[in-house]
Every structure is written in structure tokens, then in C-alpha cells.
Design a protein that fits this description.
279 residues, alpha/beta, TIM Barrel, chloroplast, RibuloseP-bd_barrel, plastid
Length: 279
């Protein structure tokens, strides 16, 4: 592990990273400030915000937390570093998927190469697109490691199987552990496989909540990314309370419910290995 940011480096090594994501296209400064304050109060590791230099400057003036900015534009990332961002991320692709825009391995590699040329002394995180096959995700992760990328992030694997997942989740809706497993299994399955083949820290994101976050480290993650589950909370208190649950959950990786989720997720991984060739 080779990170430029010494504080984050030690947290990644302990596998207790909690990244709070406000959204790649979220320029609502009031909401961003609320999310930043709840991240501070709960003791989160760092925050991930829109790549907007003006917003970066404002957030930098009100928090001591490390600031990450996300974009698919290397020049935007560079300008945000000039404004005070501590690290950058190529990714958080959700808004582009909604527009039927997918990202190939070649596209991601080109963005990574350009960004590294611009930012030689900053930590760069790259999201591995979920639309890639598991084989291609691992191949991309290896190539990114060769480019001296510092951190990787996984996404949920969205496909036709979501229909099956939703039906199954409804059948077990009274079991919160099972429902949590359904939401997180795709991201953690990718995390498990990628982390076995590379030496970079991996953040598991997409569908992660306070239950599934407790087993992220078991599946090779150095941390988790939390986003939608707190953005829907109405107050800073509610946001902070939920993040506290996530942080507490990470401390309980050996509890019985965590072992139960691990067994379910291992079955999910076997399942995705079988179906992956069709997507």
C-alpha cells in the first residue's frame, strides 16, 4: 500500500475506512454541508464531493476531514486539487448509467493515465465499472495497479438479475440481514475477487449499509462508501446516528450475524461466477 496521505494510509491499513459520499452531481451546498457535519460528528474517515473548485473551497474552510472529489474529467480533478482537495476519484458513475452511458476498460484506463500525469503526488481512486464482467474487472484492476493508482472502489453489479433479487427480497422482507445481503452482495463479490489479485486497498460501495458493512473487511475491503442511505435522512442527527451504526458495525466483524452474511455472500459469489459469462 502506497498512499500519499499519511492519515488515510494508516486508516486503510487498519481496514476501518468509512467514506461518506455526497454525490458526483450533487451541487446543493446546504445538503453537502449537512453531510460533511454528520461525517465529522460520527468520526468518518473522509468525504467525497462533487468536483467543483468553489464548493471544494467552501467545504475546505469548514472541515478538517480529508476531501475527495469525483469526476470523469481529469482537468476538473486537477482544478479541485488546486482548490484544496486532498485526493481524487475517477468514478461514482451512477448518474451516467441512468443516461445509458457505460465505461469500457480502455476508457477508464485512458482517464487514469491522463489523471496520473496531471496529479503525480496525489492519491487517485478509480471505480471499477459494474458493467464489466468479473474477469474484466480483475484485469482492469491489475492494469490500474501498474499505473500506480492508489485506491480502487467497487460498485453493485446491476443486471437482469435485479428482478430476481427483488422478488427474493420481498419473500424475505422480514429478515433485515437477508435484505442487506441482497443489496450488498454484488459490490462485495467484486471486492472479494479483486482484492485477491491486487495489493491496492479496495473500498466497497453501492448498497452497503450498517449491517453489510460489518463484513466488508472479511471480503477484502479496506473500507466502505456510504451514500444514499444517509442522503435520505432529514436531519444531521439522523445522518450522524446512522453513520455511528456503520462505524459500530465495522467493530463487530466477528459477530454471529456477520458470519451469517459471509456464508450467504459466498454463495452469491459462486452464483455470479456461473452467470457472469452471460453478461
Amino acid at each position: 500500500m502506497n498512499l500519499f496521505h499519511s492519515e488515510l494510509s494508516s486508516l486503510f491499513k487498519s481496514k476501518k475506512i468509512v467514506k461518506v459520499i455526497s454525490g458526483l452531481n450533487n451541487n446543493n451546498i446546504q445538503q453537502i454541508i449537512k453531510i460533511v457535519k454528520c461525517a465529522e460528528l460520527s468520526g468518518a474517515s473522509y468525504i467525497d464531493i462533487i468536483a467543483n473548485p468553489k464548493i471544494v473551497s467552501i467545504i475546505k474552510s469548514i472541515t478538517s476531514l480529508p476531501i475527495c472529489v469525483s469526476s470523469i474529467d481529469p482537468l476538473q480533478l486537477y482544478n479541485c486539487v488546486l482548490a484544496g482537495a486532498d485526493l481524487v476519484e475517477i468514478g461514482n458513475f451512477d448518474i451516467f448509467y441512468q443516461k445509458s452511458m457505460n465505461f469500457s476498460s480502455i476508457k477508464v484506463l485512458k482517464l487514469a493515465i491522463y489523471t496520473r500525469r496531471l496529479l503525480q503526488n496525489k492519491d487517485i481512486c478509480v471505480t471499477i465499472p459494474h458493467n464489466l464482467s468479473l474477469f474484466d474487472q480483475i484485469k482492469l484492476a491489475k492494469n490500474l495497479e501498474k499505473l500506480d493508482i492508489n485506491i480502487l472502489q467497487t460498485e453493485g453489479f446491476l443486471s437482469k438479475n435485479n428482478i430476481i433479487d427483488e422478488v427474493n427480497a420481498l419473500s424475505y422482507s422480514s429478515d433485515p440481514i437477508f435484505c442487506s445481503t441482497i443489496k450488498a452482495s454484488k459490490a462485495l463479490a467484486s471486492t472479494y475477487l479483486i482484492s485477491r489479485y491486487i495489493n491496492l486497498p479496495v473500498i466497497a460501495a453501492s448498497g452497503i449499509d450498517y449491517v453489510s458493512s460489518s463484513v466488508a473487511a472479511v471480503f477484502g475491503a479496506s473500507g466502505v462508501g456510504i451514500s444514499s442511505v444517509i442522503k435520505h435522512k432529514k436531519t444531521v442527527y439522523d445522518m450522524t446516528y446512522y453513520l455511528n451504526q456503520v462505524l459500530y458495525s465495522i467493530q463487530l466483524q466477528n459477530c454471529s450475524s456477520s458470519r451469517y452474511i459471509v456464508s450467504l455472500l459466498q454463495k452469491e459469489i459462486s452464483y455470479f461466477k456461473l452467470i457472469n459469462q452471460y453478461f
